[in-house]
Write a sequence for this structure.
């Protein structure tokens, strides 16, 4: 995967998967300051989201964060409908499924209609034996040409997660860049030369084999 951007001459050997969920919570339209047995839906949403984000676990390598909240209200009334999008970052699909069940439990609130919908699911890119072999070859080439090459894991998904397990894959092989997605975006020229040299040598060795 050749998208530029990884700092410190690093390539990615593992990426988490990512799910986006949409939560819709709806209650009764209420007047400001008027007492009611029905809870204000916006307050309920904030409390629910707090409980949901606390499900995150560094040990199990998954994290939950709200990324967007929208409200709907009639004139002169408090919001009666709230739509929120959740980002779930995960490494293990089984844990992701369990998290979904726990989120649904958090949304079971008396007096409030709640619906949870999975919008997208990008699978994780995990370390593989064949990818480790590919990495060893690259490191050997890097040492031969005195090219800096380090590795790291990433919380963000990429198309590497869609590559079949029998195919070796590494991510972040593009050149080092800074200020991505801004007017000052720039690719490090020496890194472009390094990465081109690494890939060309790897391809040459592969053809010779």
């Amino acid at each position: 995967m050749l998208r530029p951007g990884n700092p410190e001459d690093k390539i990615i050997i593992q990426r988490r998967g990512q799910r986006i969920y949409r939560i819709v919570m709806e209650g009764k339209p209420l007047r400001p300051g008027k007492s009611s047995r029905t809870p204000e839906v916006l307050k309920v949403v904030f409390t629910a989201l707090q409980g949901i984000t606390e499900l995150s676990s560094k040990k199990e390598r998954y994290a939950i964060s709200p990324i967007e909240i929208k409200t709907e209200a009639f004139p002169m009334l408090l919001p009666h409908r709230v739509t929120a999008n959740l980002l779930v970052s995960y490494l293990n699909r089984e844990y992701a499924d369990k998290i979904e069940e726990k989120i649904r439990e958090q949304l079971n609130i008396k007096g409030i209609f709640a619906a949870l919908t999975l919008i997208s699911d990008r699978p994780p890119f995990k370390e593989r034996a064949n990818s480790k072999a590919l990495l060893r070859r690259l490191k050997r080439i890097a040492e031969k040409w005195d090219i800096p090459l380090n590795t790291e894991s990433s919380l963000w998904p990429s198309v590497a997660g869609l590559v079949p397990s029998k195919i070796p894959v590494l991510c972040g092989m593009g050149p080092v860049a800074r200020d991505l997605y801004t007017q000052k975006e720039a690719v490090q020229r020496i890194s472009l030369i390094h990465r081109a040299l690494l890939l060309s040598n790897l391809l040459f060795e592969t053809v010779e084999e």
